[in-house]
Amino acid sequence: MIAALTILSSGGVPASTPGGAVLAAVSPTESVKRTTDEVLRILDDREMQRSARLMERRKLLEKVIAARFDYREMAKRTLPTRWKTLTEAEQKEFVDLFQSFLSSSYADKIEGYAGEQIHYLAERLEGDYAEVRTRLVSEKTEIPIDYRLMGKSEEWFVYDVIADGISLVKNYRSQFDKIIRDSGYPELVEDLRKKSKEAKLPKPKK
Questions:
Q1: Which long-range contacts (CB under 8 A, 24 or more apart) does 81-87 make?
Q2: Contact assessment for residue 69 and residue 169, using Cβ atoms and an 8 Å cutoff
Q3: Using one digit for the tens of pLDDT, what is the confidence trace for 98-146?
Q4: Which of 34, 35, 53, 60 can pair with 68 through a Cys bridge, CB separation 3.0 to 4.6 Å?
Q5: What are residue 168's phi and psi, to 5 degrees?
Q6: What does the pLDDT look like over 157-200, one tens digit per residue?
Q7: 191, 98 in Cβ contact below 8 A?
Q8: φ and ψ at residue 99, rounded to 5 degrees
């Protein structure tokens, strides 16, 4: 099911790069691949496909994704100018709402998986940052998906996803900026709160 074209592995114990950054024992590509493999394992589990366990499966998917995605960093990057003006409590509220909304949206897309192959093309390292290039291949189409990661505590965490040339963070940044300009920050929070509640409602079967 998974066709890995190229896996660049760092291997061994954490090592310092010329720039002083510390590499994790597992490479960025392997980090992405492990998370993807676990997601596909859950999706392929026939027991978890039973209607009585769909919500349990959704929570498992969100948990696996959350372990690899740095939602705080992603949320922060969607509010580049507003972030520093928020109190610690406001920042936490925004991150929680953003995570709830985004993880559910991401899980919706993942649950639409229909046997596509994921090709791991290459990775690029620059200090504490990395980019993993992949390609989602089906019988009808091929979609380039690049993961941007940052190293923290000897682990790699995703802070942006570029699908078919479109940055997830930049896309939401543009949407959020417009809402803030037109209606103010409180309206953005309320909008995310509503979407977060809607995301938790059971989805009708198609």
A1: 82/180, 82/185
A2: no
A3: 998 888 777 777 777 777 889 999 999 999 999 999 999 988 889 999 9
A4: 35
A5: -60, -45
A6: 999 999 999 999 999 999 999 999 999 999 999 999 998 887 66
A7: no
A8: -65, -45
